[in-house]
Design brief:
- Four copies of one chain form a homotetramer.
- By secondary structure, the first copy, chain A, is mainly alpha-helical.
- Chain A is built from 19 helices and six strands.
- A two-stranded antiparallel sheet of chain A has the order 1-2.
- In chain A, strand 3, helix 9 and strand 4 form a beta-alpha-beta unit.
- In chain A, helix 3 crosses helix 7, helix 7 runs parallel beside helix 11 and helix 7 runs parallel beside helix 13.
- Chain A is elongated and about 100 Å long.
């Protein structure tokens, strides 16, 4: 029955429920760092002796070394990383080890460790985004004046430059990066010392531990400190948005690499081949990025549902927080690395892009704008005139720049020869020089801006 | 940068993207069973020789044995369970092994394996639900006439029996069970033989492989067979609803075990204690069940987002399907086992329940119904009369059955002595004998029904 | 402050919280039908007089007429549709109206009304799916032998027929249809008579009301009857899967109508034009269908989160159920209608599809299969041989069927002239005759099957 | 069939798809403000004449007046608010009206309007949070020293003060407030002038329109400007977290108002009564707040699913953005108003809280800490000693402070009379004076901090 799960009896079930060690052992560095800061503080304020403090710190460093070298044996009976480390510490140093847990509790300890992990994950994600942004700017520079179709509804609408298209994603990613920075800053308060839920009567120095662990300050309310997980949820929210942006670019890569577009070619290293069809370059890495919002938004749902309607303070429900957060950041990290690799190594087929850009009367708006600018035709009227001209072009099977002047004049006699100056795709993109527009000049200015910003970025 | 992920180069990233072996090795039984059926069919229709067929089947059984005994070495370079098994088969038996993959493709193979796994998971879940239903019916029987408060808005509304309350969950779970049965039935069509996406020109016998693998019939469209995952999503949907039902009962257990209710006591085996407070019985197992919709609905989100807008046929995005489905069913299986264990071992505090049932003027509706029944008072008027009586009771600090007849008559002179027959909580629950109502008699009838149904259930 | 919401005071806030009439007035037909059945039953069992019963029924019919003709004034002060109808009934017929609410409560009343609505929505959805299936089968028939590319990873893999592609969706939709049927059947138990939560002491006949309202039987547990909403959630789950299927076809329509594919043309009636670019046919209806999982899965999330961890029985939280369910079914109904319209009127460009199908060495698998079939080459070896041949073809810029026999023989001397019989896309699809495969013959057989099934369908 | 939807024909379906006016008319103020800024800019840079510019602005003000007074007739044929306003403008002022749409498109127009709306919604939400924070601080001040149970797992763990509990939510809400501020700041870039997707060749001044509309700067990439919706998603994410926090407090209110706790009483104005049970105070407003994450996280799902995998630039899918965002903010606004009203008017039952705080040996940790502090017992040993003492207390049915000294000394002979100083709940909370702890002194300091911060807050 149930694959035998129940047959193993309550002990087996409760072990599966309680033992989080398989998930939370990933927090071992944070746990040891946090305990060292706590012990040093306890000694500094006199709650434990200096000697005990030193023994604890030394002991913790030995535990760290054991874990790092693989000599440590994790035990599910000790439930979690916190008990595993403390138990080993007591084995190693005896009595002083029993003093480490003074003035704290697992509730503030796990909150502290998990915050440190999530803070690091946010910063790593921001860095990985930066790497992708550089790859996009590099591609933008290499293709600043490559003309491609701009789409609405996947119908060709107006020509744009490939550089401009790449920079659109740099903008989105910049907001993603700033969201991770905001999340990391907002969570940067230290729960340590909140104890079980009510604080403690020991004269601890929470500013000291907070500073030692790189936090801006201690959390100001002990109940909130142990029972809030919005810091992790906000981080996963930032990851969800970033993954959504990656999924859009990924969808474009999947389409662009298909024979119907043929706009780009992915390097072998980022494609999956087929032994039977050696020409095939399956964009697996792009498809993974496209699917990634699934994994990350799924984790976000898990976290939000878990916290809904939970009374204060700690409840076991919250144990679900780490698996979901780890899964989200593992997925994001993989997707960012894969996307950076693809973008950096993208082979752009200028001719295919240029040819497609000319389809669909993509310079019709330029013609309307020419009427407004040179003939002072009200825009809504110009719009109608161009509609009639495109109808003629369609009937004759010609692009706009191949229509005879007489055809143009048959709709609006005021049209003159110089209209042809605006009807090519190159003229179109060249003329789009308003701030934020697609012209190669704009793209290059913007690239220069980004280069400057990247240089100024702290590393 | 990014914890070094990118530094490892494209190969490392692509390995992380492609190698699903860490997840899908769980499908090894299904994979070998499917391959055996395929080989036997190929031999039966003459696509391969009888001798080759036999060698393949024997070889696959050796592979199975190696995996079962732990002698098998899984290789990430071989990407997934399918290639791991086939490669080992060729190592073991040589040339005939190279004929196994005739007239199939990984696309139909993985779809077949995963369907078999999910079908089994649905059936196991249905069985585990059955176990929990029996535990609930047992508790209902033991407490058929225990009176407890029935709530609306967590305010005490009318008395009910604990047996009736338990049976409410038996009903919900019965629908959950039937949803798993429906899902298992609907998915029971065999993708094997759909090949990559278009079927094959070999004269294969798909009815034979379908039957051999316990399917009702082969899938009727090859494109659909390899590119649909609604079977897994429907299974996770059934799991989501079941988890939602468990979360409601879990919330009640958390409240009932708190000192404010004290309605039930969980056995030590299903509680987590505290070495400092030995009386404490933290309902960790209940809290896990309460949180479980998070994990399962999260997996559901993952799957739905992954499939949204995916063109036919196979895309790499779909590789995300297994991790999410496995996580959902692992979680559900754990929650069902934990809940069964808790319910089976629940200690019910009749006195605490009875005392609470009398609070809140819970028999006010009985008084109104008495007026309607004996005095032909229209219900809406009876409603108003009772409102005024309860106001008097509240003012005097008495329960309804302790009010003097004169007090009752001061509001409605037609009230007579025999009204007291309906004002106790026992009288109230005893009188609720309409079909589906809460009286002990009803509860016992219903228990008998369930016993009969459980006996008739196929095992 | 807050757009003045708070300034209006508690009364305004509570009215916004309580008044569900703007949402639930949509249930008016169900409410009146349910009340009529209840009144007739009360009279039949003697709880009210025959005369009162008749007056109530006549009065309810007058209310229905008022609502139908727009003469009815809905009042937010009366909170919901149930109180609006009952209050008006009492205005119209006086005292007997006050007897209607005997032996029921708003809790069972709303559950009954909402089940009837959801049951109808499921049946309507199933019908609308049937309409779309017919449109798909019609397209399949008209294009049974049109060859198009079959894709994996949006790379061209093997040729398929357009008819086969259409029928893939007929399969998916058939499962969707059966899910709605299952949901409608499972929910078909009547809550009426469960009263507030505990049943009633009146001798009501729940079988009678259940039958009168088209239910298979009454709900067997009163607590479950008033506090479960899995019926609505299951219905929205079925809608979520159906919307996911539609989103896949919609994505294909968006791509196929783009100039890069040019496979199909949507009629004007189902496109949005542009006055400036008259050739433009924006596939807005397809994009709406693609986005629809957002709306429906969002509603599903709402419902699942709302129910998570809710203790029995009724809680105000559940009031959120109707807005979400209505939104989901409105969206699905619109998407199904839009998709049926598009498919029915799709113009298929056979030449564009045929031309694309020949790209990408799409018959490479046919060559491998030929080697297996005629030369008894083990498949894995045949696979390698074909890989080398395709490499030559790619180098020479030729499709497989244009390669010289000497080129083929340079890789495998056993290849003979008759191999050319399998290298065209027509030969490829023609040879795929295994059950469920893509050949025109298969497609026509399958169409015949569907026609028969549609005829047998109850209407 | 389908409730007749299809019978109405394509026109009806497409109208339902295209006509967003029923949803987006809510943007009328933003639309007119945006158009005025655009017209003034066009005149300033000479694209239109000063006279035309003035006529347009005057005309738009007339349109605004018509809408405000209800004189305006919205037309579904004109699809959306943008076309409705522009069409009316042209009716009113003729030719100059046809010049308004120069150098812009609906794509940048709708993005601008929707950003302005969302920015305002974020600011309003932040204000409404501030109101709730003040209410919580007021309750904290009035109940700074009221002792209540602090819970883990809903088991009584340690005594805390009610003031401290209230302030925990002030902390959570402060982070929510700062998230809305961050979102509003990050989105504060103006899309106007991005035109359809590529920018424009007109010499527009985007800095001018950005400044006129209160944006910090124009969006720097036209493709990003028209096709990104992360601004709305981030806002709904902040709303989701805030709603999750409210749901936790709401769950507590539902429990606290139940007779099992009896900790607080909600005023009539924020409860729903029952005419039959006048004492009943259903916490409907709290239940609505508890359910609110359903509505808001549902909207978040909608938005994330909608955007997943969408290629640039505008697609019709995005039309779903507004309904979801409006629903989320309407819900949040209602929940914040309801919660503020409840908290402001909460009647606290000190005695019930105090009595419950003493249950469950809630000062056991104080005893352990006393041993550590006065006897230098290592904490883990103290932990064990207290466990044995609590076992005695449980056996004798006494609270810790009622145990005889001899009983205490039977476990640890070093315990002395002065231990009783720490065993009362008052002593316990009084001693918790570490930073962020629960003592009344801490609570009062923290209240003073909040008062100062609220005063410094810009209004």
């Amino acid at each position: 029955m149930w694959g035998g799960r129940f047959a193993e009896g309550p002990a087996a079930i409760m072990r599966d429920i309680n033992a989080s060690i398989s998930v939370d052992k990933r927090l071992w560095r944070e746990d040891i760092t946090g305990s060292k800061a706590h012990a040093e503080m306890l000694a500094a304020v006199g709650v434990i002796s200096e000697a005990d403090g030193k023994e604890i710190v030394d002991g913790l460093e030995r535990v760290a070394q054991e874990i790092e070298t693989g000599a440590f044996t994790f035990s599910a009976d000790l439930e979690d990383i916190h008990m595993n480390v403390e138990a080993r510490l007591i084995e190693l140093i005896g009595e002083p080890g029993r003093r480490l847990h003074t003035a704290r509790s697992r509730n503030d300890q796990v909150a502290t460790d998990f915050r440190m992990w999530t803070r690091r994950a946010c910063r790593d994600a921001a860095d990985a985004i930066g790497v992708l942004q550089v790859a996009l700017v590099d591609q933008a520079e290499a293709n600043a004046d490559v003309v491609m179709p701009g789409y609405t509804h996947l119908q060709i609408a107006q020509p744009v430059t490939f550089g401009h298209h790449m920079l659109a994603y740099v903008e989105m990613l910049e907001r993603d990066r700033s969201r991770f920075a905001d999340a990391a800053a907002r969570m940067n308060e230290c729960p340590l010392g909140a104890a079980a839920l009510a604080g403690t009567s020991f004269p601890i120095d929470r500013n000291r531990t907070a500073a030692a662990l790189g936090f801006d300050r201690p959390c100001a309310n002990s109940l909130d400190a142990v029972s809030s997980r919005d810091f992790a949820i906000e981080a996963v929210m930032a990851a969800s948005l970033c993954a959504t942006h990656l999924s859009r670019l990924a969808e474009e890569l999947v389409m662009w690499t298909s024979p119907h577009f043929g706009f780009v070619r992915l390097p072998d290293a980022f494609s999956t081949g087929s032994s039977i069809m050696p020409q095939k370059r399956n964009p697996d890495a792009a498809e993974l990025c496209r699917a990634m919002p699934g994994r990350i938004v799924g984790a976000l749902s898990t976290l939000l549902i878990m916290m809904k309607g939970l009374p204060l303070a700690y409840a076991k429900d919250m144990q679900e927080d780490k698996a979901a957060t780890f899964a989200a950041f593992d997925g994001l990290s993989l997707a960012l690395a894969a996307m950076s690799g693809m973008i950096r190594n993208l082979n752009v087929n200028r001719d295919a892009m240029r040819a497609a850009a000319a389809l669909g009367y993509s310079t019709a708006t330029d013609l309307a704008d020419w009427l407004v600018r040179t003939r002072r035709t009200p825009f809504r009227r110009a719009h109608e005139i161009v509609g009639r001209i495109v109808a003629i072009a369609e009937k004759k099977g010609l692009t706009l720049d191949k229509l005879a002047l007489s055809d143009l004049q048959s709709v609006d006699p005021e049209i003159t020869q110089d209209v042809y100056d605006v009807l090519s795709v190159e003229a179109s993109v060249g003329s789009r020089t308003s701030f934020g527009a697609t012209s190669p000049t704009n793209v290059r200015e913007r690239i220069a801006d980004w280069r400057t910003r990247f240089e100024e970025m702290p590393t």
